[in-house]
Amino acid sequence: MTKHPFSGTGVAIVTPFLENGDIDQSGIEQLVEHLVNGKVEYLVVLGTTGESATLNKEEKQQVFSKVNEFNKGRIRLVAGIGGNDTREVVKALQSFDLNGYSAVLSVSPYYNKPNQEGLFQHYKAVNDASPLPVIMYNVPGRTGMNVSVGTTLRIARECKNIIATKEASGNMEQIMQIIAGKPDGFEVISGDDGITLPLVACGAIGVISVVANAYPRACSDMVRQCLAGDFAGARPMHEKMLPIIQSMFAEGSPSGLKAYLAKLNISGEYFRLPVVSVSNQHRDYIHQLMSTFQ
């Protein structure tokens, strides 16, 4: 059986900024080196964690191109291209230079709250327009609308350019139903670090991770253990990571994550509004967690 190209650990990377809000190219380079050296399987560029909502089209192209340049073809790259205006998403898919990229991650439409038929038609348009295979992305906590089991399986059956779903619904029953009902060639990827171990046990092929930005080797080794069926061996690291994961989201993401990366001297703790830094108290807690994490 051929290994799926997006099994293992993908990383939803941050976008490093300078203090003035410009894109930090040196920070991008350091982050890419950190993650490649950490043995993750692929990078997801300009997802939610990359603050993509606050970058214009030219800046997005700059980030896509710089990550590809610094990666030097070493691991797979996935481009985050999504939105709540289907025509604009189609236009973006056809206009970005995606040289060096292997797939697209496309979040379901947010704010509009379309019904299930609208979600299907959106993904059908994405399927037809994308020059690369597509990973759909269900994150109802951010979009306001869940992509149901039935709609996901309909997309999986009818939209052959859509090869996987990143499931961040947090609904274990829903995700297990998708895994049980999916056609061959369509896979499920965890979108929540905290439940990756049980999801792989149920048949998911890995994770698109936030925590792996800071701890790529620990995270990717744990996922590889899970994929090999060694859940007993993976559990200690899974449990050790749980407070780290919680701390990254307690005051918003990527606020918590960038506090980790700043302490690791990988990129600065700078954002674009409305995202801001974590509180001093929470940063102290993060530094305390880091000092005890081995």
- At CATH level 2, the architecture is Alpha-Beta Barrel
General form: globular
The whole-number mean of residue pLDDT values reads 97
Report the count of strand segments.
8
CATH superfamily: Aldolase class I
Walk across the major sheet and give the strand order.
7-6-5-4-3-2-1-8
Return the structural class. Answer: alpha/beta
Question: Count of helices?
Answer: 12
What are the segments in which pLDDT stays under 50 over at least 5 consecutive residues? none
What is the radius of gyration? 18 Å
Name of the CATH first level? Alpha Beta
Order of helices and strands: EHEHEHEHEHHEHEHEHHHH
Short key terms for the protein model shown above:
globular; eight-stranded parallel sheet; TIM Barrel; 12 helices; alpha/beta; 294 residues
Outline of this structure?
With 294 residues, the protein is of the alpha/beta class.
